[in-house]
Amino acid sequence: MRSTNKRFISALACASVMTALAIADPMGITKTHQVVQAATDNVPARSAGVDVSSWQGTNLTQQAKSGAKFAVVKVSESTNYQNPHAQGQINNAEQNNMMPMGYHYAHFGADSNRAVQEGNYAVNSAQQAGLP
């Protein structure tokens, strides 16, 4: 993978982690974009958190008791997969006073059109899962 793509993927991951995901086309050809409103919650700097996907269950109580202040939930991958546990994981994170966040596992490579499709899919998946 070219370093430009790695930088873009890193930027997308960072945007997801901040829960304010704006879809932007690195080639400058996107006509529209979507923005998901950022969560109003925040966590102190250097707080512990957990990364969960469909491999983990929806109960995050133990992680919260161990000091996790946030949960980064995999909500989608490519343009055809949504984590079936995402909504439950997000809800349980909130119930345990953890800030929920989401991420998308991308597969678009150097294809900017595919990147836009995946970005839109990621935003829709995050909204369906209940991310603010």
Notes on the protein architecture:
- There is one protein chain.
- The chain is of the alpha/beta class and about 130 residues long.
- Helices cover about 35% and strands about 15% of the residues.
- The protein has a single domain, classed as TIM Barrel.
- The chain has helices spanning about 5-15, 60-65, 85-95, 110-130, and strands at about 50, 70-75, 80, 100-105.
- Strands 1, 2, 3 and 4 form a four-stranded mixed beta sheet that branches.
- The protein starts with a helix and ends with a helix.
- Its EC number is 3.2.1.17.
- It catalyses: Hydrolysis of (1->4)-beta-linkages between N-acetylmuramic acid and N-acetyl-D-glucosamine residues in a peptidoglycan and between N-acetyl-D-glucosamine residues in chitodextrins.
- Keywords: Glycosidase, Hydrolase, Signal.
Write the layout of secondary structure elements.
Blueprint: H1 3-17, E1 49-52, H2 61-65, E2 70-77, E3 81-82, H3 86-95, E4 99-105, H4 112-129
Keywords:
glycosidase; 4 helices; TIM Barrel; single chain; alpha/beta; four-stranded mixed β-sheet; 132 residues; 4 strands; signal; 36% helix
